[in-house]
Every structure is written in C-alpha cells, then in structure tokens.
Amino acid sequence: MTATTAPSVRKAPRPRADALRNRERIVTAAREMFVEHGPDVPLDEIARRAGVGNATVYRNFPDRDALVREVVCSVMDRTAEAAELALAETGDAFAALERFVHTAADERISALCPMVSSTFDQHHPDLEASRERVEQLVEEVMGRAKVAGQLRPDVGVGDLMIVVAQLSRPPAGTDCMRGDRFVHRHLQLFLDGLRAPARSALPGRAVEIRELRDC
C-alpha cells in the first residue's frame, strides 16, 4: 500500500517589486492631479504623469472610485502616522500638536476628503477604518496637550480638522500652487489661538468629529 501525500497548498504569489512601485507611482500621481484639478481628471493623464500605460492603471484600479478611495486612504494613513509620531514624542505636547497640524496640511487632506462624498460610498470599510484611525489619534494628540494645560479646553477634534481643511485650501479664484506658500503662516496663527490660557470665550461649543459627518 502506497502512502499518499497531502496535497500541497499553493501560496498566493506576492506582487513583484516593480508592480508595487507602479502602484505607488499611480497613487502619487493621482494624489497630485486630484489636488490640482479635482477628481474628474482623465485617467490617461494620471497614467502619463505616473509614467505607466493606461492598462497598468486599470489593472491596479478597475474604476475611478477605486483609485480615488486608495488615494484618500493613503493620505489618511500618512496623516495617522504623523499623529503617531506626535504621540511618541516625550517633550512639549503642544509642539507635537503643532508639528502634526503642519504635516497634515502638507498631505493636502483637505483637498482630497471632499471627494469622498462626491464620488463614491463614504462608508466603504477601507475608508471607515482609515478615518476612524485618524480621528482617534488626533483626539489623543489634543488630549495630551489639554492634560498638560497647553491647549484650551473648549476646542474639539472637529474644530481642529475644520480649520486645517479651510486654511490648507487656496482661496477661490487663486492659483493652487501659489496659495501653498501662505498655508503654514496662517496655520501658525490659528495654532497660537489654541494655546491656553484662552484670551477670549468661544461662541457655541466644541465641535466633535462625528458632527462633521452629518454636514
């Protein structure tokens, strides 16, 4: 009687390094062009900037929604990483908050996030997971600064994210790239207004992040 061997289990092939690089180049090019021109930029233009063929774009992203979602999630993930770095710092809690805010502005999350509601299902699991991670980490960064007595207590995560979004967008009718040079100047003015003790009482109440989803 011959012994039977167990069937071998084939592992799923790992993506090749060049395929991963192409995907990263597509996402980077799409992020740049979405910021510059909005979500309706032609996919062949994205392929051209990424230095790949149209077929490579569609092989990685079957439709525009999939590409937009990947871009937004990647920006949120990098923003979350910036928040994690801020939490890992053992020095000045408010300085860590400042560095996070400026990094988030550089990611241009403000220009990308509005595309979520206009192009695809904003409740997609990947998007929800990235968003919840960012929100939790930002709350921790702000909470640490409040505990240290450096951040005024009457502001919420929603307050911070609204202002970062508004200040990191160029004013209507201005050139997008030229407006970038003012972003960090105006963000710093805003950050100085967040320091405790507060110089004035804010009207209304702190804006929580969940309220932004209902707007």
TrEMBL record:
Pfam families: TetR_C_43, TetR_N. Residues 42-61 bind DNA. Keywords: DNA-binding, Transcription, Transcription regulation. PROSITE patterns: HTH_TETR_2 (PS50977). GO terms for molecular function: DNA-binding transcription factor activity; transcription cis-regulatory region binding. It comes from the Bacteria. SUPFAM superfamilies: Homeodomain-like, Tetracyclin repressor-like, C-terminal domain. Residues 20-79 form the HTH tetR-type domain. Coiled coil: none annotated. This is TetR family transcriptional regulator.
